[in-house]
Specification:
The protein is α/β, with parallel strands linked by helices. The protein folds into 2 domains: 37 residues; 188 residues, Beta Barrel (L,D-transpeptidase catalytic domain-like), CATH 2.40.440. It contains 5 helices and 13 strands. Strand 1 and strand 2 form a beta hairpin. The radius of gyration is 39 Å and the shape is globular.
């Protein structure tokens, strides 16, 4: 703060003379002085009762006191998904099975189910990371029939079925002997039991129809019948496979009211 130096102050004698003159003047006008003093007291009392800051208040005079600090909560995103992939997940979807391939040409992958029960909080993992498999030749952004690749993207999960009784699923479930399967896979493994439980992936199919439905809106040449089914210890032709106990767990967890989807692709592609 700036302070005037002692050299610039009036000499004491001048100050004393001035003060003495002032005292004589006030003595002569005692009645007026009393009136002025009383007016000042009245104004001061009114100011205090109105809650207005006095001359010693800071520059914030008249402003409301700030409230308590409320930190902004940023909703959690699904890990390892890039902006393009996240944007493809419907805004009203509250369940997402994320299947992440080890590499573009690999048939090995993992799967985690995420839920978004509170949009303000964002996504959280509802399951552990499960081992999974995909097609023999890996992944593709443009699937064609018999290319032995799994189509990448975000697709609805709207119906299920299988050879066995439904394990308490909320999805529409078509139990049928048509899900019986035999033969061998690419590694010579038995395919029996692979379709004991299946969940249809809405790639090139009519959403909500039975997994056995053969209608292909994009044309037969674009492939179809892409399911999540029971793992048979080998690569698939285009589907996603999970261990049998995980398939039962997934069927029990998926809720059509939460608009479940599958988000699938190789790790590098999902980061886009």
């Amino acid at each position: 703060m700036f302070r005037p130096s002692a050299a610039r102050r009036p000499p004491y004698a001048v100050c004393a003379g001035t003060c003495a003159a002032t005292i004589l003047l006030l003595t002569a006008c005692g009645s007026s002085s009393d009136s002025v003093t009383g007016a000042r007291e009245v104004r001061g009392a009114a100011t205090a009762s109105a809650g207005v800051a006095g001359p010693q208040a800071d520059g914030a005079r008249g402003r409301a006191a700030p409230g308590p600090y409320a930190p902004r909560i940023i909703p959690r995103e699904i890990p390892a998904l890039g902006p393009k992939t996240r944007f493809a997940i419907p805004a009203d979807s509250r369940q997402a099975l994320v299947v992440t391939g080890d590499a573009y040409d690999s048939s090995l992958s993992t799967a985690v189910l995420y839920t978004r029960d509170d949009p303000a909080q964002g996504w959280r993992a509802a399951t552990e990371r499960w081992p999974a498999r995909n097609a023999l030749n890996g992944w593709t952004d443009e699937h064609w029939e018999d290319d032995l690749r799994t189509p990448t993207g975000v697709y609805g999960l709207t119906s299920a079925g299988g050879l066995l009784d439904p394990p308490g699923t909320m999805l529409p479930y078509n139990q049928s002997p048509a899900f019986a399967l035999s033969g061998e896979g690419f590694d010579g493994e038995s395919l029996e039991g692979s379709f004991d439980y299946v969940i249809a992936i809405d790639y090139n199919r009519i959403p909500g129809a039975s997994p056995l439905d053969q209608k292909r809106p994009l044309g037969q040449e674009r492939g179809g019948g892409i399911w999540i089914h029971v793992d048979h210890d080998g690569p698939t032709q285009g589907c996603i496979s999970l261990p049998e106990d995980r398939m039962r767990e997934l069927l029990r967890l998926l809720d059509p009211a939460k608009k479940p989807v599958v988000v699938m692709g190789d790790a590098q592609g999902l980061e886009r």
